[in-house]
Structure formats: C-alpha cells, structure tokens
Design a protein that fits this description.
Layout lengths: L1 H19 L2 E2 L6 E3 L3 E3 L4 E4 L5 E9 L6 E6 L7 E10 L5 E8 L5 E5 L8 E8 L3 E11 L3
Antiparallel strand pairs: 1-11, 2-5, 3-4, 4-11, 5-10, 6-9, 6-11, 7-8, 7-10
C-alpha cells in the first residue's frame, strides 16, 4: 500500500512539473490599438475594422525555455486573424523581427513557433483581424514541445 501511494505521489509530482513548464500569458493585460476594443472581464476582442488589433507587452521576456505559443479561442473564428511574436532583435532594415501565423476562419486554435535565435528576448505578442468581428480568447500559453 505504501509503495502504491509513493508511486502515485511521484507520478503526480512528475505531471505537475510538466504543467509548471507552461507559461500562461495574462489575457487581461491585453492592450488594443487602432479602433479595436477589449473587454477584460470576458476576454473578448472586438475588431471594428480590418487589420485592427492589439497585444500583450512582455518587456523582453526570456522565452528560451519555450518552443511555441498556443493561442486558443472559445469559438471558431468568424474571420482570419494574424497572430505574431515581436522580438527585441532587429533586421538589417532596423525593423523588429517577428514570427507570424495566420489563423484561418473556422479554426479555434493556432501554434506559433518561436525563432530559436531570438526567443531569449520577446517584446510582445500581437493579434489583428482581416475584417471586423468579435473573438473571445480561451487561453494563451507559452509551451515546450512534447
């Protein structure tokens, strides 16, 4: 009995340590730009025009321990959205380097791969929509690949 209990506790600790590796981006800290609107209580973004949006300032967050960012919505998207990570590093045109993923209408989830060379300093995450509409965020997490 004690052996089974010990195994159960060790298994729980192992599973907990895997969960602890994910980093939940505080969705309530979203800042809109353009004419987009954000309701922090419901985590709802209202895009009033095409290519309006917003994002999360991460202040050069070191994401070296993570491989990707998973964004999930409560319902299937009514329009295409672009989700991106902006790094502190700049290219030869003095523009900040970005990773982007297009999330097609009808989908609820996307995975954005982080650039290995730049993920040690992520300035922020952003989202914009191809047309007006409403989306509700379910989760936004930095994750290690399994």
């Amino acid at each position: 009995m004690k052996k089974n209990l010990l195994i159960a506790v060790l298994l729980l600790l192992t599973v907990s340590s895997v969960w602890a590796k994910d980093y939940n981006v505080e969705t309530k800290k979203f800042k809109s730009w353009g004419e987009a609107q954000f309701d922090a209580e419901t985590a709802t973004i209202t895009f009033t025009k095409n290519w309006q949006g917003g994002g999360w300032w991460l202040s050069r967050l070191d994401c070296s321990a993570y491989d990707c960012i998973v964004i999930e919505f409560e319902e299937a998207l009514p329009m295409d959205v672009m989700f991106m990570a902006t790094y502190s590093a700049k290219d030869d045109k003095d523009q900040k380097i970005k990773s982007k993923v297009k999330v097609p209408a009808g989908k609820k989830k996307a995975v954005l791969e982080l650039e290995p060379a730049y993920k040690n300093s992520v300035d922020g995450l952003g989202i914009s929509a191809t047309k007006a509409g409403v989306v509700k965020l379910k989760s936004l997490n930095l994750k290690e690949k399994k």
